[in-house]
Amino acid sequence: MHDFKARRLSAGLSQAALGAMVGCNQTTIGRVEKGKETTPLLLKAIDAALPKTGALPKTGALPTIPGAATPADLSGMLATATAAMHEKIELQAEIIGSQRETITALKQTIVALEKRLEERKDART
After folding, report:
1. Statement to judge: residues 116 and 58 lie in one domain
2. Taking 50 as the threshold, does the pLDDT of residue 54 lie above it?
3. Rounded distance between C-alpha atoms, residue 109 and residue 101, angstroms
4. In a shared domain, residues 83 and 125
5. Which stretch of 5-19, 20-34, 62-76, 98-112 has the lowest confidence by average pLDDT?
6. Phi-psi region for residue 104, left (φ > 0), alpha (ψ -120 to 50) or beta?
7. Among 28, 50, 68, which residue terminates a domain?
8. Do the beta carbons of residue 42 and residue 25 sit within 8 Å?
9. pLDDT tens across 67-120, in order?
10. d(CA 103, CA 97)
């Protein structure tokens, strides 16, 4: 069994902070600490990231997991997601504008039909 939790707490790290250091999330760190996650590469990365003495590792000495997203990758993903959201918002604004025009046209049609109905009623009397 690993002493990851004690070492993490000794270093003053949250599960989320440790997860960010090794490229996983807080839930995964929790599973590792409970012995439910035993992926060797992840265990090795966590072991390397946590100081043996409780001191925080120096920046740049942090291990990475092959295939894990880098800050540049995350920045690119965020930019892509932001652009996609802006496109959706613009499309929704166009749809709302179109719906408003349709509602206005329907209201005008109803008014015209009500007027014609009144005219027919007046013509019969």
Report:
1. no
2. no
3. 12
4. yes
5. 62-76
6. alpha
7. 68
8. no
9. 677 777 778 888 888 888 888 888 888 889 889 999 999 999 999 999 999 999
10. 10
C-beta atoms surrounding 62 within 10 Å: 14
Residue 65 is predicted with a pLDDT of 63
Same domain, 19 and 60: yes
Of 27, 10, 7, 29, nearest to 18 by C-alpha is: 29
Residues spanned by the domain of 84: 69-125
- Compute the distance between CA of residue 97 and CA of residue 5 in angstroms, rounded to an integer: 55
Query: Residues 111-120: contacts with CB within 8 Å, 24+ apart?
Result: none
Number of structural domains (the chain) is 2
Q: In the structure encoding, which two tokens stand for residue 54, read together?
A: 């409780």
Are residues 64 and 74 located together in one domain of the fold? no
61 with 34, same domain?
A: yes
